[in-house]
Amino acid sequence: MSSIKEITSVAGWEKHVTSLPPSTLLVVSFHAPWAAPCAQMATVLSTLASEYPVTEPPSTSWVKINAEDLSDISEEYNVTAVPFLVLIRNGEVLETVSGSSAVRVRNAIESHANKAGAAATTNSGPAAAPRDGEGDVATEEDPEKKKQDLFRRLGDLVKAAPVMLFMKGTPSEPKCGFSRQLVGILRDNAVKYGFFNILADDEVRQGLKEFADWPTFPQLWVDGELVGGLDIVKEELDSNADFLKAYSVKANGDVSAMAS
């Protein structure tokens, strides 16, 4: 059965990619060690990899990359949040999956693996429907089930780091003035924070409005609780200069981090 290889350097990545034949499906998982959803996704991917036999030449290849340590590779594949899955064959990106949905990840991998005949089923009938972590059949037709799954994901996402910023763009490239100002406040206070680019995932962007009962962005969450937008954060700091002190670290480069 296949297993997941850790890529720890750009040179190691380049060597691995060039060693694969054009037919191999390369499954790349970008992660951050501090993000709880990444640990969950690692278990999902390890289980999926075990379903694919080792063949010669390899039909699939499974690797994981620390998105923060190897930022050059992350930028090459537009990784703005973790966990983030990239499926590649012969140098071409076939599909990406952002977030911790086991169903979406399984569907994507099975779709492209089967296209190459790498993991073709021996059943003559239709494939069994994928199941989520609770064993219920996942269907796109059930809006309530879909909403429940999204809210579970959002519940994990707002707790991915003690301080989470949901913003338009990234800390290095904010896409609105309010997001830029809030990033500046966090940096001025040397706050270690996770961020999520809501422009990269419309499901999160729309769902979080209802989940938080807060219609605008940016949104700042602390310990899984919504603080609010830029104005609220400013008010909190005006009334209590130590509002973010508990989350302050000695400034050392970019204090931001990625999350999903």
From TrEMBL:
Species, as recorded: Parachaetomium inaequale
The protein's name in its UniProt record: Thioredoxin-like protein
Biased composition (Low complexity): 116-130
GO cellular component terms attached to this protein's record: cytosol; nucleus
Assigned protein family: Belongs to the glutaredoxin family. Monothiol subfamily.
Function as written in the Swiss-Prot or TrEMBL entry: Monothiol glutaredoxin involved in the biogenesis of iron-sulfur clusters. Binds one iron-sulfur cluster per dimer. The iron-sulfur cluster is bound between subunits, and is complexed by a bound glutathione and a cysteine residue from each subunit.
Domain Thioredoxin as annotated: residue spans: 10-102
Region (Disordered) residue spans: 114-145
